[in-house]
Amino acid sequence: MSSLVTGPDGLARPAWAAASDLLRGYYDTEWGMPVTDEQGLFERISLEAFQSGLSWATILRKRPAFRDAFADFDPDTVAGFDDATVEALMQDARIVRNARKIRATVTNARATVGLRGRHGPGTGLAEFVWSFRPARTPVPGRIEDVPTTSPESVALSKALKKEGFVFVGPTTMFALMEAVGMVDTHLLGSHRRGCSGLWDAEGKSTGDPW
């Protein structure tokens, strides 16, 4: 049985991406496209952490509020958040009011700032994360064929934890890798398969994202 749904526009998408206009728009324009800047990677790591135990649709609906609350996920600004700021965020009903996740975002902002240049001139979060990109990507025909972890996501998780990051488990990091184009788990037959331009039909790397 196919895991794809053909919409009124004649385009095939996985069922999760056809569930609402919000998810459809995210899938069609953003999910799986390369993100190679520090602020963009920090935002997505933060949102993946907040998503833990919740639906992605919930996080997407709250994304504008998250951006407002966390200074557009500017790492330098968030790294300066103190206990009073965290307490104020806990009163902000627009976001997910989870103290551990809010504090994790601040912790990860500080780790992001601390990572700059640590592994050589010009290195930072984006270069660090993308260094774990695999040589091949999955080529799933059904949703059941999409993995939830990989050796690379396990390695990335361990490496980020060593750098001081939290809420970056292997499953969360694989979801990040999917979201930012490090792997392509669009189903075969989806109109978005290959949209990043980084993989060929057999799942082999075709080039660098930079």
TrEMBL record:
This protein's record includes keyword Zinc-finger: no
Lineage top rank: taxon: Bacteria
One of the protein's GO biological processes: base-excision repair
Pfam families: Adenine_glyco (PF03352)
Binding site for Zn(2+): H186
Keywords of this entry: Metal-binding, Zinc
Molecular functions per Gene Ontology: DNA-3-methyladenine glycosylase activity; metal ion binding
Protein's UniProt name: DNA-3-methyladenine glycosylase I
